[in-house]
């Protein structure tokens, strides 16, 4: 695996790779601190594409002041080994100044979609995501880009971005990977104390409770959401931010849960914000 840190090096390396292979190029954008969820994206890209590029960049634009940008886990050496083992050909790991040049004034606004659910709790977050992902698409020019379904709101925003700005990229949403106890994998799980980790299980427990009710025939969103909220409220040490049943593209609430409805949850456990979801 080749490691490049500048945009010029990335373009040159990809130019060479494309000259040697006529197949598709897959991109796995990440902020590092890799877990099995990220590696599932890289492995899927390896199976589906002839050239696999990954990016590792903790994007300052998607963190608001006071969020966890400074303490976000950084482990380039370990991530490098993991990406190589997953079959990545090229790792683009730029420094902040390379990706966000001082004085930049152009950004990609995710619009109203970017202010729903996670966007309501994290103003400006999806503007930062949309901007950096647009830049990555321009630099790497992938045919396919792989993202985790855990960030379902991010997927909705990026699908809109690809469509609105005519990027010739197919977005591939890969299934959530969970620990055996049900907790969805996240780089932020590293922040949780042992007690907080137990409290955090209420997120997946709320979702499975709703899935059980749904399987038993309850399709009224309000009833399902009430059942899920009751699970979280019964658990000390966790503060629910939202639990909604929404259309997966518009992210607007639905009255009836039908196949394809996105049921998404966000909660705070101590200082850590966690998200999870399922698609009905
Ligand atoms: O999902 C992430 O890790 C980030 O939001 C992404 C897509 C790499 C953009 O910084």
Overview of this protein structure:
The protein has 280 residues and is an alpha/beta fold. It has two domains: 2-174, Rossmann fold (3-Layer(aba) Sandwich); 187-279, Pantoate--beta-alanine Ligase, Chain: A,domain 2 (2-Layer Sandwich). It contains nine helices and nine strands. The strands form two sheets. The chain has a six-stranded parallel beta sheet with strand order 1-4-3-2-5-6, with helices on both faces. It has a three-stranded antiparallel beta sheet with strand order 7-8-9, with helices on one face. Helix 7 (152-164) links the parallel strand 5 and strand 6. Helix 6 (125-140) crosses helix 7 (152-164) and helix 8 runs antiparallel to helix 9 (221-233). The protein starts with a strand and ends with a strand. The chain binds pantoate. Residues 29-31, 59, 62, 129, 132-133, 151, 154 line the site of pantoate. Pantoate is lined by residues 29-31, 59, 62, 129, 132-133, 151, 154.
Task: From the structure above, extract its key features.
binds pantoate, six-stranded parallel β-sheet, alpha/beta, Pantoate--beta-alanine Ligase, Chain: A,domain 2, Rossmann fold, 19% strand, 9 strands, 280 residues
Topology:
Layout: E1 2-4, H1 7-20, E2 25-30, H2 36-48, E3 51-56, H3 76-85, E4 90-92, H4 96-99, H5 118-121, H6 125-140, E5 144-148, H7 152-164, E6 170-174, H8 194-215, H9 221-233, E7 239-246, E8 262-269, E9 272-279
Parallel strand pairs: 1-4, 2-3, 2-5, 3-4, 5-6
Antiparallel strand pairs: 7-8, 8-9
Helix pairs in contact: 6-7, 8-9
Bound molecules: pantoate.
Topology, number of strands: 9
Question: What is the radius of gyration?
Answer: 19 Å
> Percent of residues in helical segments?
25-40%
N-to-C span = 38 Å
N-to-C order of helices and strands: EHEHEHEHHHEHEHHEEE
Structural class: alpha/beta
Instruction: Give the name of the CATH superfamily of the largest domain.
Output: HUPs
The parts where pLDDT drops under 50 for at least 5 residues are: none
Identify the bound ligands.
pantoate
Number of contiguous helices? 9
**How many structurally independent domains?**
2
| Shape verdict | globular
């Amino acid at each position: 695996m080749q490691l490049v840190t500048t945009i010029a090096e990335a373009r040159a390396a990809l130019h060479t790779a494309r000259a040697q292979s006529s197949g598709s190029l897959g991109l796995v954008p990440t902020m590092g601190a890799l877990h099995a969820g990220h590696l599932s994206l890289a492995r899927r890209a390896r199976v589906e594409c002839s050239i696999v590029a990954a990016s590792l960049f903790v994007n300052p634009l998607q963190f608001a002041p006071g969020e966890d940008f400074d303490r976000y886990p950084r482990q380039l050496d370990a991530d490098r080994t993991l990406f190589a083992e997953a079959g990545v050909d090229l790792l683009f790991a730029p420094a902040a100044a390379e990706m966000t040049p001082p004085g930049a004034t152009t950004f990609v606004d995710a619009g109203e979609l970017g202010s729903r659910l996670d966007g309501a709790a994290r103003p400006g977050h999806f503007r930062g995501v949309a901007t950096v992902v647009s830049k990555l698409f321009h630099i790497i020019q992938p045919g396919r880009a792989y993202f985790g379904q855990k960030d379902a709101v991010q997927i909705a925003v990026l699908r809109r971005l690809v469509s609105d700005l005519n990027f010739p990229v197919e977005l591939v949403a890969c299934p959530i990977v969970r620990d055996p106890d049900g907790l969805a994998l996240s780089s932020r799980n590293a922040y949780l104390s042992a007690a907080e980790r137990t409290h955090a299980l209420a997120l997946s427990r709320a979702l499975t409770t709703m899935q059980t009710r749904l399987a038993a025939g309850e399709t009224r969103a309000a009833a399902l959401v009430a059942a899920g909220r009751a699970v979280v409220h019964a658990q000390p040490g966790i503060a629910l931010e939202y639990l909604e049943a929404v259309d997966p593209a518009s992210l607007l609430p639905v009255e009836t849960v039908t196949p394809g409805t996105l049921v998404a949850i966000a909660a705070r456990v101590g200082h850590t914000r966690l998200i999870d979801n399922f698609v009905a």
